[in-house]
Amino acid sequence: MSAATEDNKRKVTTHRLREMKERGEKISMLTAYDYSMASLIDEAGMDVILVGDSASNVMAGNITTLPMTLDQMIYHGTSVMKAVKRALVVVDMPFGSCSGNPEKSLDAAIRMMKETGADTLKIEGGEEVIQDIKKIINAGIPVMGHLGLMPQSINKYGTYTVRAKEEKEAEKLLRDALLLQEAGCYAIVLEKIPSSLAGELTQQLSIPTIGIGAGPDTDGQVLVMHDMLGINKGFSPKFLRRYADLHGVITQAVRNYISDVKSNDFPSEKESY
Ligand code: KIV
Questions:
Q1: pLDDT tens sequence across 244-263
Q2: Which of 82, 108, 165, 214 could bridge to 190 as Cys pair (CB 3.0-4.6 Å)?
Q3: 0.85 surpassed by pTM
Q4: What phi-psi label fits residue 188: left (phi over 0), alpha (psi between -120 and 50 degrees) or beta?
Q5: Is 191 among the catalytic positions?
């Protein structure tokens, strides 16, 4: 086995993500919420698996990510961790679990790490939650930041449109990103911001940036698994590329099964004991 193949099989760490940024190798990241899909995604060679609180939308059918609880994220995180051998696993801290009370945030973060066995956590926000983030990192827990469109703050914004188009918001985003880096975050997700701003930030930061709707100049890309596999028909923002039409594949397979049951074609003699 070549050294490159050996290296590819090694567990991905936060340190390796930094090395990837330094040598200009793009970082791939995708969400997963359950054991079976996490196994497939890990075996395919994904660098980072995000147990996102988008589980609230795609798994639980909620309109926003706000209803997600710590217990529900622990359930998803535990299921994913049982499957993953190579990828770095990041679990989202849900709405309300890290919001300006560092002691309480640390308790929640420790519970998440102990009960899921996850490698790292992701927390939305900048200056407003910087003390929470510092407290968690000081306890030895690696944190990925998340700036730009922050779905947990949807009630503050009122819309899911592109963020930081105005200079004032772009300046705050830049300040927040530097604060997160100084606090010790190992990477930052940049969601739905202009490409030029994402590119500028990526140049300024020594830690990797992972974009979603942030253009090609970030150090990596992340998508929600249900969206890129075409399970969700109704969600088609400009930034989304669909790599499959699982909606069509699954619907047809289920229709075929119904038809076979109704016509008594299934099960056949060969499929019976
Ligand atoms: O919860 C999630 O899936 C996310 C991604 C959109 C980055 O935070």
A1: 999 999 999 999 999 999 99
A2: 214
A3: yes
A4: beta
A5: yes
